[in-house]
């Protein structure tokens, strides 16, 4: 399963890159009647560094704010950021939907600051469509934009482009989820380093995974088995459920080529067997064989609290030693792999699977599936000319490979550049270097969320219905039938 070949011999990476490049244009054109949002801005930015002292604010999250000194140091020493440009990181909410609402208020009010905003790749396109962020293809020199368009993860770049292919965001990092687990606990249950080496790049089936976790939990008396994010929020619809569903061969809109549109003219496939079985598996994880829709071959390994968990509530019990395994993002690897937490006893593996690509109804879906998270840096078009010039120097510094590699080391922020994910350099990095093999498998098998101008509405409905099914408030079939009706209404009114 580490091989990313589809049944027609085309790699999943190639398939998704081609679909992503064309799909973003379809998604915007389907809602805007043509080329998509033009974007705000005042033409090219002066490329000469400002001579004055200037501070630019970057709206980010607490992880970036906490690592501000180290980030600025590498931007200066490795990226050549001038000393007279100071950077202030603003620690926004860790919940992606809260940040989206905050940016909407700031940009709608025409505020000049922050100068730069860290935007989730899942909701950058609506800001492009509303013409609220600067068109970087017009503002930045081609030496920067062409490097992004030619060398970065293509289906991530597509989430920052309009229908004409103009670029509105510089990918800052790609988020690649994995399963983190306690090697020390698995050793107590009789597993060995040979098992861990195999799991690092060869995904298990979900059945094998659940049985192994249950065995370890029982053998070690650990409070929790497997923790993940099941709350009714963006992270469920965009990410964790995309993985559970995709690894069962299920999809929101059939083939991946439909994920970016055209809105109103694509199949809605959430009532399919793969989607329903993913929910049944999760309910088995939570409630065991007593659940009316439990699947055979799966063990009860998750606490009922997972239906309320977002990233941090899921991570904290694991970090505190109260869980066997955790689904989370690379920032969590940096926390849990630290010497004062688990050190080299932290294991990482790709997301398990239930259905191979060959067994899936959809050519581009199935097998190990990693939701493609990640964040772009976008430019506030209302910023002063001086701060825009300073921001250009920031974007320029970020193009240096040494900056990208150092940021991976500082905070687990994986470079959004395929050639930098698994290399001799990245393998030599402290801590995160131990796990780049697993992250590379995740990158090869990544799926972005279906980003269109209606995704915000659809995401809310998806999260609500899936969460209702996880809580046993609805059967999986009823929840997905209701979701079909909601998605059809959203699609038809777009």
From TrEMBL:
<feature type="region of interest" description="Disordered">
    <location>
        <begin position="471"/>
        <end position="494"/>
    </location>
</feature>
<dbReference type="InterPro" id="IPR050490">
    <property type="entry name" value="Bact_solute-bd_prot1"/>
</dbReference>
<keyword id="KW-0732">Signal</keyword>
<keyword id="KW-0813">Transport</keyword>
<protein>
    <submittedName>
        <fullName>Extracellular solute-binding protein</fullName>
    </submittedName>
</protein>
<comment type="similarity">
    <text>Belongs to the bacterial solute-binding protein 1 family.</text>
</comment>
<dbReference type="InterPro" id="IPR006059">
    <property type="entry name" value="SBP"/>
</dbReference>
<dbReference type="Pfam" id="PF13416">
    <property type="entry name" value="SBP_bac_8"/>
</dbReference>
<dbReference type="InterPro" id="IPR006311">
    <property type="entry name" value="TAT_signal"/>
</dbReference>
């Amino acid at each position: 399963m580490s091989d990313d070949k589809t049944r027609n011999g085309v790699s999943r990476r190639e398939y998704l890159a081609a679909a992503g490049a064309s799909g973003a244009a379809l998604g915007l054109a389907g809602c805007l009647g043509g080329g998509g949002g033009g974007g705000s801005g005042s033409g090219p930015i002066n490329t000469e560094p400002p001579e004055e002292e200037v501070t630019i604010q970057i709206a980010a999250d607490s992880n970036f704010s906490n690592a501000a000194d180290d980030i600025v140091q590498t931007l200066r020493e490795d990226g050549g950021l001038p000393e007279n440009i100071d950077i202030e990181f603003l620690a926004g909410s860790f919940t992606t939907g809260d940040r989206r609402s905050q940016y909407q208020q700031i940009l709608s009010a025409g505020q000049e600051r922050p100068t730069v905003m860290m935007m989730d790749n899942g909701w950058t396109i609506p800001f492009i469509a509303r013409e609220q962020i600067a068109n970087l293809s017009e503002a930045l020199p081609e030496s920067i934009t062409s490097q992004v368009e030619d060398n970065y993860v293509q289906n991530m770049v597509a989430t920052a482009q309009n229908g004409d292919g103009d670029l509105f965001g510089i990918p800052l990092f790609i988020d690649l989820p994995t399963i983190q687990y306690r090697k020390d606990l698995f050793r107590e249950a009789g597993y060995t380093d040979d098992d861990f080496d195999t799991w690092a790049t060869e995904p298990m089936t979900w059945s094998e995974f659940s049985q192994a976790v249950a065995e370890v939990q029982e053998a070690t008396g650990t409070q929790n088995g497997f923790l993940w994010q099941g709350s009714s929020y963006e992270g469920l619809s965009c990410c964790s459920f995309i993985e559970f569903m995709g690894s069962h061969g299920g999809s929101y809109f059939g083939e991946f080529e439909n994920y970016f549109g055209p809105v109103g003219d694509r199949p809605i496939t959430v009532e399919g067997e793969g989607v329903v079985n993913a929910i049944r598996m999760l309910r088995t994880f939570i409630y065991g064989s007593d659940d009316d829709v439990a699947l055979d071959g799966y063990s009860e390994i998750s606490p009922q609290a997972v239906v309320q968990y977002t990233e941090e509530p899921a991570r904290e019990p694991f970090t505190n030693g109260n869980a066997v395994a955790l689904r989370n993002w690379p920032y969590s690897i940096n926390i849990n792999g630290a010497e004062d937490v688990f050190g080299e006893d932290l294991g990482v593996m790709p997301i398990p699977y239930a259905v191979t690509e060959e067994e899936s109804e959809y050519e581009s879906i199935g097998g190990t599936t990693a939701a493609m998270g990640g964040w772009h840096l976008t430019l506030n078009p209302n910023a002063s000319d001086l701060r825009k010039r300073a921001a250009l120097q920031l974007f320029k510094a970020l193009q240096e490979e040494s900056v990208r590699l150092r940021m991976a080391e500082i905070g687990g922020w994986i470079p959004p550049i395929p050639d930098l994910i698994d290399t001799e350099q990245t393998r030599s990095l402290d801590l995160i270097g131990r796990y780049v093999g697993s992250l590379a498998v995740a990158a090869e098998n990544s799926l972005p969320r279906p980003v269109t101008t209606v995704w915000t509405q659809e995401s809310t409905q998806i999260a609500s219905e899936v969460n209702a099914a996880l809580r046993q408030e609805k059967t999986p079939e009823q929840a997905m039938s209701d979701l079909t009706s909601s998605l059809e209404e959203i699609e038809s009114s777009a």
